[in-house]
Amino acid sequence: MKEVVIVKYNAGNVQSVQYALDRLGVRAVWSDDPATIRGADRVIFPGVGAAKPAMQYLKAAGLDAVICGLKQPVLGICLGLQLFCTHSEEGDTDCMGIVPNSVRKFVPRGGQKVPHMGWNTLQTMSGPLFEGVKRGAHFYFVHSYYATEGASTVGSTDYLLPFSAALAWDNFCAVQFHPEKSGAAGQRVLQNFLFD
Amino acid sequence: MLAKRIIPCLDIKDGQTVKGIQFEQLRFAGDPVVLAELYAKQGADELVLLDITATVEARNTFADLILRTAKVLDIPFTVGGGIDSIAAVEALLRAGADKVSINSAALKRPELIDELAQAFGNQCIVVAIDANIGSDGDWYAYLNGGRIATDRKVINWAIEAAERGAGEILLTSMAQDGTKDGFALELTRAVSEAITIPLIASGGAGTMHHFADVFVQGGADAALAASVFHFGEISIPALKQYLTEQGIPVRQDQ
Fold first, then answer.
1. Which of B37, B251, B252, B254 to mutate to test the interface with A (most CBs of A within 10 A)?
2. How many Cβ atoms sit within 10 Å of the Cβ of residue A112?
C-alpha cells in the first residue's frame, strides 16, 4: 500500500478528502512535517479558503519550499491548484509558481453567478488523471477565482470564460473541482492519481 | 455547461427524517444516512440536512449523524438548523459538512454572516430566508421556522446577506411550503436577479413541471424539495430526464 500524505495547513476542511480516500481503502496521513511529506509516495494538497492567509502560513512554516521541492506525484485541489500558480488576484498574493498560470477573479455577468458553484463539465480533458472518465462527466466546483489557461492546462471548463479545471506539470497535477465531492467521476480521478 | 442542481432536503428530528407540512404537523420518512446515500446514488446534486430539534442531547445526535453522513456521501451537503456561532459552524465543518445554512441567527445579528465568511470562506455560508407575504402584500423574511415576522423585505435582506459574504441564498416561500402548488416564481425571479450569488429555490414543489418553471421562469440556480422525493412522488432520475427533455442542463452521469 502506498503512503499518502495530506498536507496539513490553515486552509481547509480536509475531512472530506480523508473520507473519500477511506472509501477507496486508502489510509492517508495528515501532516505538516517536512520529512513525512517528502517521504510519501503521494502527496495531496487540498485547500478551501483564501489565498493570502494560506500562503502566509505556508511560508512561515517553510512548507511552500517543501512542496515546491517534491519529486513524487502531488495533487492540488481547489485552492491547492491556485496556490501552485504564479500569482493570485485574491489579496494580490504571490503563490508558489510551480505552474506558469496566474489566478484571476471571476466577474459575474448576464445572470452567471459567482461563486461558480455546482456541477460542470470539462470542454477538454487529457492525460492520465482523466483516464476512464467519460466525456460530459460533471464535477463539483466552488470557487470565485480561476486559473488562466496555458501550456500546463490538461482540463478546461467554460464558465464566464474558459479557465483551467485541471493542470499538470512534471510530477505536479491539480484540479479546480472537488474530486472528493464529485461522485463516481471524482472518485475515478482520485484513483488515477493514487494508483497509476 | 453549469448544471441546474436538484437538492433533496432532509428535515431531521431526534436523528430521524421528517417533513413538515406547512412546517407544523410532522411526518416520518426514514433513516437520514440511508436516505442520503440513496439520493446520492439516484443523482441528487447536493443534500441539505436540517436539524429541527432544539434540545442539547438531540444536537449531539445530529453532530454524530453529520459525521456518519460525511463518511458515506460523495456529493456536497449543507447542514442547517439553529446555527448561531462560529464554534457551532466549526464543529459541523469538522464533522464533514461542506456548507452551513444560517437563518434566524443572521436575521437577529447580521454581522454573523461577515464573521462566518471571514472565518470559513463565503463558499460554505448559505443564508436561508423564510419568506412570506406581509399585510402590505410585499414579501418579508420570517424568523424561527417561519413563525415570527420581521420588518426586513426579502429582496433587501438577500442583497445585504450577499454583500456581507454569503456564498449562496436558500429562499423558501412559506406561502407555498408543503402545498405542492409550485414554487413562488415571481419572488424567486426577483431575488435571483437582485443578487450575483447562486440562489436555491424551495417551497411548493409538487410536479416535475414545477422544477422546470423555477429554473426557466424563476431563474433559480438550484431547486430544493423534500416530501415529493421522500414519498417517492417524484424520482430524481425521472426528474432529470424530464428537465433534459425541456432543454434544461442537468447532471445525468449515473
1. B251
2. 15
The average confidence (pLDDT) of chain A is: 95
ipTM of the modeled complex: 0.93
Is B74–A113 a contact, with Cβ atoms under 8 angstroms apart? Answer: no
Beta-bridge partners for B84: none
B87 touches chain A (CB under 8 A): no
Give chain B's radius of gyration (CA, Å): 17
**Catalytic: B130?**
yes
By CB atoms closer than 10 A (0-12, 13-18, 19+), residue B62 is buried
Q: List the domain range (segments joined by +) for residue B19.
A: 5-245
User: Could you tell me the CATH number of the domain that includes residue B134?
Assistant: 3.20.20.70
B76–A178 C-beta distance less than 8 A: yes
**Does A97 score more than 70 pLDDT?**
yes
Question: Over the stretch B222-246, which tens digit does the pLDDT of each residue have?
Answer: 999 998 988 888 999 999 999 999 9
Q: Is B45 a residue of the active site?
A: no
CA distance A151 to chain B (A): 23
Q: How far is A6 from chain B (nearest CA, A)?
A: 16
In chain A, where the domains are located: 4-194
Say which CATH class A4-194 falls into.
Answer: alpha beta
Nearby residues of B77 by Cβ (< 8 Å), 6 or more positions away: B36, B46, B47, B48, B49, B69, B70, B97, B98, B99
Rounded Cα distance, A144 and A31, in Å: 28
- Whole-angstrom distance, CA of residue B159 vs CA of residue B33: 34
Interface test with B, best of A30, A112, A113 (most B CBs within 10 A): A113
Note whether B183 and B216 are within 8 A (CB).
no
Residues in chain B with CB shorter than 8 Å from the CB of A112 are: 2
Query: What's the rounded Cα separation, in Å, for the pair B188 and B114?
Result: 24
Q: From the CB of residue A102, how many other CB atoms can be counted at a distance below 10 Å?
A: 17
Indicate the number of domains in chain B. 1
Residues of chain A in contact with residue B192, where contact means CB-CB under 8 angstroms, are 111
Model pLDDT, residue A61: 96
Q: A3 is written with which cell numbers?
A: 503512503
